[in-house]
Automatic annotation (TrEMBL):
Annotated source species: Mycolicibacterium goodii
Protein name (Swiss-Prot/TrEMBL): Antitermination regulator
Annotated InterPro entries: ANTAR, CheY-like_superfamily, PAS, PAS-like_dom_sf, PAS_fold_3, WH-like_DNA-bd_sf
GO MF annotations, alphabetized: RNA binding
Residue ranges of domain ANTAR in the record: 132-193
SUPFAM superfamilies: CheY-like, PYP-like sensor domain (PAS domain)
Length: 233
C-alpha cells in the first residue's frame, strides 16, 4: 500500500466523519481462496492484539451489529459474486462488547497483468468520542463535584476568618474532625455551613458558640453513603 493511498484515505475519512477520524485500518480480500488480510490497526479496532487473529468471512460477520449484519452479509456476497467493491456505514462490536460506528471504503485490487485479484479498502472509525447521554452524565457529575468542593471551601473560609488560620490549617482541622467522627468531609462541611449560617453575624463573632457548633457538627451530620472513608468528598 502506497503512502499516497494512505493519505487519500485520511482525507476521505475527514470528509465523511466531519473531523479527524479516531482510527483507520486497511483490509484486503482475495477472491481465489476467499482470504482476508487485516492491518494491525483494523485488528485493534475489532479488539484483538495484532497477530493474534486470522480473519475469515465468518469472523468478519460475527463482529457486525445484529441490526446491520444481514445487509453487510449481502454486501459481501455481492462482492464475491460480482467482484465489486463494497462500502457501507454500519456498526461493529469489538471483543469487549463496545459498539463502534465505521465506514468501509474499498476498490478493486489488481494484479500486475490487470486482473482483478480481490478487494482492498479501509475501515474508518467514526464513533463519536462521547454520546450526548454520556456527555450529559459527565457534565452532571462535574457539577456535583464542583458543588461539593464549594461547600468545603466555604467552611474553610469561615475557619480562616474566625480562627485567624491559613487555608492549609483550616483544611487540616476539617479533615481531623472528619476522621475523628468517621463522617465524610463533604457531609461534615455541609452540616457546619448550615450550623454557622443559623448563628448569624453576631453568633459567629461569639467564639464559644462557634466552637461548640464546630465540634458537634459531625455528630449531627448524617452520612447516607456507607462505602466511603471519612475524608472522601
Amino acid at each position: 500500500m502506497t503512502r499516497g493511498s494512505e493519505g487519500g484515505a485520511a482525507a476521505v475519512a475527514r470528509a465523511l466523519s466531519g473531523g479527524t477520524p479516531q482510527h483507520i485500518g486497511w483490509f484486503r480480500f482475495y477472491f481465489a481462496d476467499e482470504r482476508w488480510e487485516w492491518s494491525a490497526e483494523l485488528q485493534r479496532m475489532h479488539g484483538y492484539r495484532p497477530g493474534t487473529v486470522t480473519p475469515t468471512t465468518e469472523l468478519v460477520l460475527s463482529h457486525k451489529h445484529p441490526d446491520d449484519r444481514d445487509q453487510v452479509a449481502a454486501d459481501i456476497n455481492d462482492m464475491i459474486i460480482g467482484r465489486r467493491p463494497l462500502g457501507r456505514r454500519h456498526r461493529i462490536i469489538d471483543t469487549t462488547g463496545a459498539v463502534r460506528e465505521v465506514i468501509v471504503v474499498s476498490d478493486q485490487l489488481h494484479g500486475h497483468d490487470g486482473d482483478v485479484l480481490g478487494i482492498r479498502g479501509f475501515y474508518i472509525d467514526v464513533t463519536p468520542v462521547l454520546s450526548q447521554q454520556e456527555d450529559a452524565a459527565i457534565t452532571a457529575e462535574v457539577a456535583k463535584i464542583t458543588e461539593r468542593r464549594a461547600v468545603i471551601e466555604q467552611v474553610k473560609g469561615m475557619l480562616m476568618l474566625i480562627y485567624g488560620i491559613d487555608e492549609n490549617a483550616a483544611f487540616d482541622l476539617l479533615k481531623w474532625l472528619s476522621q475523628e467522627n468517621n463522617v465524610k468531609l463533604r457531609v461534615l462541611a455541609e452540616q457546619a455551613a448550615n450550623d454557622f449560617t443559623t448563628l448569624g453575624d453576631a453568633g459567629v463573632l461569639a467564639r464559644s458558640k462557634f466552637d461548640r457548633l464546630l465540634l458537634t457538627a459531625a455528630r449531627r451530620a448524617v452520612d447516607s453513603d456507607d462505602d466511603s472513608l471519612s475524608t472522601s468528598v
